[in-house]
Amino acid sequence: MSSPNPESVQGLTRRQFVRAAGASSALALAQSVGEAAEAENPPRGKGPESKLPTRVLGKTGLRVSTIAYGSYNLSNPKLLDAAMNEGITLVVTSNDYQNGAAERTIGEIMARRRKQVVLGTGKSCTRRTTTQDLLQSIDQSLKRLQTDHVDMWRVHHVNDADVLGNEAIYEAFDKAKQAGKVGHLGLSTHSSPATGKVVAEAIKRGRFEFLMAKYNFMEFPEDYVPFKNAADAGMGVIVFKVDAGRRDKAVAEMQQLKDKLKISGDQARIKWALQNKLVASVVSGERSFEGIREACQAAMTPLSRADRQYLDAYVRRFQHEYCRYCGQCVAACPHGVQVDDVMRFVMYFKHYQAEKAAMQEYAAMPQEKRAATCAHCSGPCMAACPNGVRVQPQLAEAHRLLTMDVGTDRHV
Ligand code: SF4
Ligand code: SF4
Predict the structure, then answer these.
(1) What are residue 69's phi and psi, to 5 degrees?
(2) How far does residue 31's CA lie from ligand 1's centre (Å)?
(3) Which domain holds residue 44?
(4) Total domain count for the chain?
């Protein structure tokens, strides 16, 4: 059986699809706007054995697999190959990941399998990023990805709604779209407190067709209002960080509970996110073949009572350890440590098998925002945390891990 071709929707070629992806034609392609409808058939992936469901991504009209392949720390192209063989037809990356190395790795597979996926990339912007910067970044991404176009391009990591007031974003996107280089405009946001504001601004602008945002059982209600607002405005929703820090990996009591309930914690977290029908796809950053298979299996199975029981236990166990990366304590730090970023990088290091990428990101931070002073501090930031996270010892450990010279165990 031939591989799926997400761009051959209703007989259009990919290039035609990209060019025709204005709101009206895209609307005509979508089975539903607002609710990401489940695909009944055919199965996607390498063959009839792949049952990974698909949903429609809002008014983009793109039908995407309910598991997306994320590439934050991707370095082995074989993993992407395997993910596509499992039926994953949505691949998302960013020009910013590993200084472009993630795009290059994906490009190795796209050179021969580009037509089998919906491909998205993006670039983080400030209020001062220029049209020229963005056009250059798009060309750079296409070159690395070994393709002449991406189906989705996004403003990456928007935690300040004012960034969307930068007209260069729209000018660059329109120019690139006219040249057939990009299909649909979206944005991603990583900060839970900022998501509502960012989504409201995106809706006001009327230009965005999809949203990528953090969503998990620990921080968000099942019927999260900003997603409803985005969907009502026709934006498709893709979510990430559904695993709420994955802190249970090496905790014996949690392992015992999983064994007793006969469930997988990773699968329970994915199932929780997908039970929200406004969510078109969950980004998985799995870096093992088994993990990719498990993620895909989760998308085919409903959330059970045992899954819920486990997630409730996870919340109780980790609520005062799990940093939500909200940044609300930053102002309370007399040394200007960027607590949310440091905690995010150490999570990648400890729980996401992304040691190298995390260390690179940490090294790129301005010295004064790093956690060098935390080991000798009484931690006034902790009183400012609305979640009661005991963050000072974690920051001290973060600095030690993220500056470790792995070869010599020398700290730099
Ligand atoms: S532990 Fe001290 S130095 Fe570190 S972030 Fe908190 S207040 Fe700042
Ligand atoms: S420690 Fe608390 S306030 Fe600070 S970033 Fe984490 S969750 Fe937010």
Answers:
(1) -95, 120
(2) 50
(3) 6-312
(4) 2
Residue 72 lies in a domain: yes
Q: Are residues 300 and 339 in the same domain?
A: no
Q: Could you tell me if the CB of 371 is within 6 A of ligand 2? A: no
pLDDT at residue 409 above 70?
no
Strand partners, 361: none
Q: Report which bound ligand comes closest to the CA of 392.
A: 1
Q: How far is CA 81 from the centre of its chain?
A: 19
Judging by DSSP bridges, how do beta strands 54-56 and 63-65 pair with one another? antiparallel
Measured in angstroms, how far is the CA atom of residue 323 from the centroid of ligand 2?
5
Dihedral of alpha carbons 384, 385, 389, 391, sign? negative
- Per-residue pLDDT tens for 77-107? 999 999 999 999 999 999 988 889 999 999 9
Task: Give the Cβ contact number of residue 207 at 10 Å.
Answer: 16
Residue nearest to atom 7 of ligand 1 (CA): 333
Closest approach atom of ligand 2 to CA 325: 5
Closest ligand 1 atom to 337 CA:
5
Q: Is the CB of 389 under 6 A from ligand 2?
A: yes
Distance between CA atoms of residues 128 and 391, nearest Å:
33
